Amino acid sequence: MKVAQNQGESLGQRAKRGARWTVIGIALTSVIRLASNLIMTRLLVPEAFGMIALASTIMTAINLSTDMGIARSVTREPDGDTKLFLRMAWMVKMLRSALIAGAILALAALMWLLAPGLAPAGTIYAQPEMPGLIALIALAPICRGMGSANWELALRNIDRRSIVIWTVLPLMVSILAMIAFAQISPTVWALMFGMLTNFLVQSLATHLFFPGPRMKFVWDKEIGDRLWHFGKWIMGSSFLSFVSRNADKFVLGALLGSATFGLYVIAQIWVEAGRNLIKKIGDGIGYPVIAEVARTRPEDLVRLYRRFQYRIDALCLAACAAAVVGGPIIVDLLYTDTYQQAGHLLQLMAFSFLVLRFSTLSNLVLTAGNSRAMLTVSAILAVVSVTLMALGYRFYGLDGAVLGVVLAPLSPLPYLLYLVHPMLGTKEVRIEALWGGAILVAIPVGFWVL
């Protein structure tokens, strides 16, 4: 039995309303997170932000290594909105969460045993709090895994209103909890307490306030096989994508002093605020819309893609310009002198917005169900990211490493264009190739000027 959602509305109406709520949600969460960041930088030392970033990165690495693309399966499968499919998806989510938590605890034990003898002195890895932080963060996937699959149903139905409300409210609660904890103990544990509070409140909200069926323990082999067939390639792809996006944290965390690494993380927080806006519009609006058009009227796919891509391009260009011009100004106005180097790093990271425009191509490939090809894309990106970052740091220091990280996402573009050619046609593929060439030239020139 399908779960009825907004049956009287057209796809265009749902997409427009979803886009409005996405922008509202990103604006609210960005303001709240950045305001909380400003508050916490006055309560905590830079090292705390580096430590929580590394613990979160480790959690995300293990999470993505077991990511079966459940939300994407709920969105693209014809029966993804049925009670049985949603309940089966919830079962898989909970099983994953238990595996993730166990892996995190095992890694925490290894760090506790090995870090004192192997970690370079003065780096994040040598901080005595790290094993405990990693062990405690194992609670995060448990909280998230218990969340109802009605969250994924809301994504399928482009119900961004529910998503936004129950992203913003738990975030506000968690920030209040974090600040209160910092009054008692102004340490990295305040950041951890806030993070866990966020996940717990959001998980409870998915059961209490999201439209959809009540979750129950079920098992359906046919649905499980479909989830696995699509998701087995997503697992490898997600992990390799994570490596490419977060190799900088693992590598630079071992190369830089803990204070400098903390400044790098501060700059990245600002860039990620903009990237999240563009990514959520692409993944939260673009992917469901493209998936529905591909299911119901594939003849309109090229026209829809071009209209959507124009909007993504405008956002990427505006975000890049704003960060290049305003990065040092923002840091100078809002942070103490200790954090000033973050302004220059923010300018350099701004060029990643230009490459972000190509994420729409990946969504097209996944819409076609070709999750296996995305594993290859992610493998290319992971290898090139690590290689370029290492070479950049070797010859040009931190700025060179950032250049490598920014340029690396262009590496799988030729393969992506090959994959989408049957869907988009020669004309659109040539336009995308021209964009790629222009960006490949513009980024090194921008770094040289800065």
Brief rundown of the structure:
This protein is mostly helical and 450 residues long. The protein is built from 18 helices and no strands.
Helix/strand class? mainly alpha
Number of strands: 0
User: Number of DSSP helices?
Assistant: 18
Number of domains: 1
Oligomeric organization of the protein chains: single chain
Helix percent band: over 70%
Mean pLDDT: 82
Order of helices and strands: HHHHHHHHHHHHHHHHHH
| Shape estimate | globular
The biggest beta sheet, please? none
Low-confidence stretches: none
Strand content: under 5%
Distance between the termini: 58 Å
Gyration radius, in Å: 22 Å
What is this structure's SSE topology?
Elements (H helix, E strand, L loop, with lengths): L10 H31 L4 H20 L4 H7 L6 H36 L11 H7 L2 H7 L4 H7 L3 H25 L3 H21 L12 H35 L2 H39 L4 H34 L6 H9 L2 H5 L2 H9 L3 H37 L5 H12 L1 H24 L1
Helix pairs in contact: 1-8, 1-11, 2-4, 2-10, 2-11, 3-7, 4-5, 4-6, 6-9, 8-9, 10-16, 11-12, 11-13, 11-15, 12-13, 15-17, 16-18, 17-18
Provide an overview of this structure.
The chain is mainly alpha-helical and 450 residues long. It has one domain. It is built from 18 helices and no strands. It has helices at 11-41, 46-65, 70-76, 83-118, 130-136, 139-145, 150-156, 160-184, 188-208, 221-255, 258-296, 301-334, 341-349, 352-356, 359-367, 371-407, 413-424, 426-449. The longest helix has 39 residues, at 258-296. The N and C termini lie far apart (58 Å).
Record keyword descriptors for this entry:
single chain; 450 residues; mainly alpha; 18 helices; globular
